[in-house]
Specification:
alpha+beta; 2 domains; four-stranded antiparallel beta sheet; 35% helix; globular
């Protein structure tokens, strides 16, 4: 086989992703990521890395709306697992192709953080990363929780022109909003980068509906994060508060919104403390409750922990869509779809607020205590 130039190799990889069903694909390099947080230094994962190939695979929007409408939890979760398996499989095949071309490459896995078991030290390791950390300081809570990624797929996607930051901090694509699964690989092949999306392609009008579907105070209403990478200033997004506020709902430990009018799919009702320093004891208690509840059907298995996890939120990225009327529809579906309760067989069902209250009141006290605080009632 004749040796191919790097532009041809790049184009073939992009075609491979498009053919596999990806709605957006792109390439970024070290220069285009300069100025981003330490997690944009590609050499953190692969010594000598020069570029990253990034792609977005859309989730099934019909199943998404069953989920956002609180009609059926299972179809979207199954599709989410399927789309993740597709992106990881595609990333693995791309690394295989690059190795056949004579280059090194590695998959950037979602959730590549110490909390997910990575053994890589995510603290700054070189002068570039130290400067990046000064420009993009990490929160003490992120360091404590291990939520800092080795490589940030979101930042790679923005730098590669795959999408742009919305107010939620999620990546919005021009065709499917944030309802996508991201995939990425890093390589020492100096692939030519694709252009960043122009500002006029960004349809985020800062409606803050991503904040309105969030059941907890995860996205700041007053503080914003801005990122500059390479020559580009990227769209600001709401600064993220303590990640455990999000994780507690995503894992189903908590569920009810702070105003009590709607919930995520999690059936928990114990409120999260307002003060971050009080979060850990509360989360430990909620985690204990979760372990004693019936197992929710479905989910994905974590071989490292030896446990299953279910997706119980994600509303902040699923609400976003290029068309404002679709966003408005999803906002209404999520906020008026009722609140979640759990049956003894593990099934999750959403009911009107009053019916859910009656459902809980009918539980034996020892079972109800796994979902809400009843000590003050006794």
């Amino acid at each position: 086989m004749a040796e191919l130039d790097l532009g041809t190799i790049r184009d073939r990889l992009l075609i491979q992703a498009e053919t596999a069903g990806c709605c957006a694909v792109g390439v970024c390099n070290q220069e285009g990521l300069e100025g981003g947080p330490p997690s944009t230094d590609l050499t953190r994962q692969l010594p000598g890395a020069r570029a990253a190939v990034v792609f977005a695979y859309p989730v099934d929007e019909e199943k998404l709306e069953l989920y956002m409408g609180k009609i059926d939890h299972a179809p979207y979760q199954e599709d989410y697992i399927r789309s993740n398996n597709i992106t990881q499989g595609l990333a693995g095949e791309m690394t295989n192709q690059l190795r056949k071309f004579g280059y090194e490459a590695e998959v950037v896995y979602a959730g590549n953080t110490p909390a997910d078991g990575t053994r890589v030290d995510v603290m700054p390791q070189n002068e570039r990363q130290r400067k990046a950390a000064e420009l993009n300081p990490a929160k003490a809570s992120d360091i404590m929780m291990g939520s800092i990624p080795v490589i940030s797929q979101r930042h790679l996607a923005a730098a590669a022109g795959v999408g742009f930051f919305g107010m939620s901090g999620n990546i919005l694509t021009t065709t499917h909003g944030a309802a996508v699964t991201l995939g990425a690989i890093v390589t020492d092949a100096d692939l030519p980068p694709t252009p960043v999306l122009p500002p006029e392609a960004n349809y985020c009008d800062e409606c803050n509906w991503c904040g309105q579907v969030c059941p907890t105070s995860f996205m700041s209403r007053t503080d914003f994060t801005t990122v500059k990478m390479g020559e580009h200033d990227h769209h600001k997004y709401s600064t993220r508060e303590h990640h455990m506020r999000c994780a507690s709902h995503m894992m189903g430990m908590a569920g009810l919104s702070e105003d009590g009018k709607f919930s995520s799919w999690g059936p928990g009702r114990k409120p999260l403390p307002k003060q971050d320093e009080q979060l850990l004891p509360a989360i430990m208690e909620m985690g204990g409750d979760l372990s004693k509840r019936p197992e929710v059907p479905g989910g994905f298995y974590d071989a490292q922990r030896g446990s299953k996890t279910n997706i119980m939120c994600s509303a902040c990225n699923l609400v976003c869509h290029p068309e404002r009327k679709v966003r408005a529809k999803r906002l209404k579906m999520w906020r008026t779809g009722g609140v979640s309760v759990q049956h003894e067989d593990g099934r999750i069902e959403t009911l009107p607020v009053e019916d859910a209250r009656a459902f809980l009141d009918a539980m034996p006290p020892e079972r109800r205590a796994l979902y809400e605080d009843i000590e003050s009632e006794t």
